[in-house]
């Protein structure tokens, strides 16, 4: 996967969440001051982090530190620093975004922090796929790519849960699956 498509994927995820507040971002530069991270956390967890930060009239460093402190309180380990985020280091920004995705989207807050891993998330996702497609021969010990590469299971899931009318023009939906 190309580096730019990975960045677009992260931006797409952030915008899909921010859409709930009728907001979008167009680049990672908008994450440097921590305000968007606060907004994402508020939407994903129901916290009032943004209100807390705004009431204290914090600068960018303080806001980002508040985000990192919040994540630490939730048992989320992020390997970045306030300085890295405020200076726009992409790795640090993506580390926080990945932590938000993994800990508050893939897993629930109710699960212990040590159980919120990529491996457990993949296993849960494959289990969900097997529940949705009872005749599918998926194996939790294989990667997602290996499970979906030689079959039409992914297309069946998309067909079942998404409206193709918006995406496929002039094609019979049944011919896709």
What does this structure look like?
It is built from 10 helices and no strands. The protein is mainly alpha-helical. The chain starts with a helix and ends with a helix. Helix 2 packs parallel to helix 4 and helix 2 runs parallel beside helix 6.
Main beta sheet strand tally, sense and closure: none
Question: Segments where pLDDT lies below 50 for 5+ residues?
Answer: 164-177
Strand content: under 5%
How many helices does DSSP assign?
10
What is the total tally of β strands? Answer: 0
> Rg, please?
19 Å
> Could you say which overall geometry the principal axes of the C-alpha atoms support?
elongated
Secondary structure class reads mainly alpha
Mean pLDDT: 80
Cα distance, first to last residue? 25 Å
The topology string of helices and strands comes to HHHHHHHHHH
Determine the fraction of residues in helical runs and give it as a percent range.
55-70%
């Amino acid at each position: 996967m190309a580096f730019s498509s990975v960045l677009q994927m992260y931006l797409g995820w952030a915008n899909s969440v921010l859409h709930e507040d009728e907001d979008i971002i167009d680049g990672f530069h908008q994450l440097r001051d921590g305000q968007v991270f606060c907004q994402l956390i508020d939407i994903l967890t129901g916290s009032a982090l943004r209100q807390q930060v705004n009431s204290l009239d914090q600068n960018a460093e303080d806001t980002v530190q508040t985000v990192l402190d919040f994540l630490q309180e939730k048992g989320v380990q992020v390997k970045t620093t306030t300085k890295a985020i405020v200076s726009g280091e992409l790795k640090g920004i993506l580390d926080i975004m990945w932590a938000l995705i993994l800990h508050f989207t893939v897993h629930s807050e109710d699960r212990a922090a040590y159980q919120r891993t990529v491996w457990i998330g993949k296993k849960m996702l494959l289990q969900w796929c097997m529940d949705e497609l009872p005749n599918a021969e998926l194996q939790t010990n294989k990667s997602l790519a290996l499970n979906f590469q030689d079959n039409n299971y992914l297309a069946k899931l998309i067909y079942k849960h998404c409206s193709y009318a918006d995406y496929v023009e002039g094609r019979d939906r049944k011919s896709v699956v």
